[in-house]
Design brief:
This is Putative methylated-DNA:protein-cysteine methyltransferase. The longest helix has 14 residues. The chain is globular and about 45 Å long. The chain contains 7 helices and 6 strands, in the order βββαβααβααβαα. With 210 residues, the chain is of the alpha/beta class. Strand 1 and strand 2 form a beta hairpin. It folds into 2 domains: 82 residues; 109 residues, Arc Repressor Mutant, subunit A (Orthogonal Bundle). The relative contact order is 0.14. Helix 4 packs across helix 5 and helix 5 packs across helix 7.
């Protein structure tokens, strides 16, 4: 595995400044968000935490081809090319259900939304609605994996790690139907609890140990 520094930068986006970190050898975004650099770096997966992080100023992005590709995608998205983020490679740790849920989120077109119930079904476990919510809360690479497009039944916003103002701004930029506000608080990333595990096991036809 490469020991080269991870590359980070900040790019203006419709909901505020977007900071992200990628591995320069493959251009894969590993963590991203509408937070200061220190907060984004703190969420780098443990498998990469030993590598240094180099912040690249906007005027120097062209010196790093893989970083420039991701930056240009964010700029195109901000300018109205709403599918521009879809081709940016991402990777984050998580078990099979979470990987399927994150892939299902990327399949929701800009301007459309899905409920947590629909996300669970799209991820292959229709009964795992709580686990679908956990997949949104644990998403490290928003908005490249667009968990902001997942709402509560009835069009209520639900939660969002970076706050509902950011979620609303992204949906408005994408032309999604008008949405209501359920609670003005960020979603909390959390491990899968016993109820989530039971949801996934039941959806998979597996027994849950007593």
């Amino acid at each position: 595995m490469s020991t080269a520094p991870l590359l980070a930068t900040t790019v203006p986006a419709p909901a505020g400044d977007l900071t992200f970190v990628l591995t320069p050898e493959d251009g894969v975004v590993r963590v991203a968000g509408f937070s200061p650099l220190t907060d984004v770096v703190a969420r780098i997966p443990a498998t990469l935490s030993a590598r240094d992080v180099e912040f690249v100023a906007p005027e120097d992005v062209a010196d790093h081809p893989t970083l420039e590709t991701a930056v240009r995608a964010v700029q195109r998205y901000a300018a109205g090319d709403l599918g521009a983020l879809d081709a940016v490679p991402v990777e984050q740790p998580g078990g099979p259900f979470f990987q399927q849920a994150w892939a299902a989120m990327r399949a929701i077109p800009a301007g459309r939304t899905a409920t947590y119930t629909e996300l669970a079904a799209a991820a292959g476990s229709p009964l795992a609605v709580r686990a679908a919510g956990s997949a949104c809360a644990r998403n490290l690479v928003a908005p490249f994996v667009p968990c902001h497009r997942v709402l509560r039944t009835g069009g209520l916003l639900g939660g969002y790690y970076f706050g509902l103002d950011v979620k609303r701004a992204l949906l408005t930029h994408e032309g999604a139907p008008e949405v209501a506000v359920l609670a003005d608080r960020p979603a909390e990333a959390r491990p899968v609890d016993a109820a989530d595990a039971a949801d996934v096991a039941a959806a998979s036809g597996l027994g849950v140990p007593a």
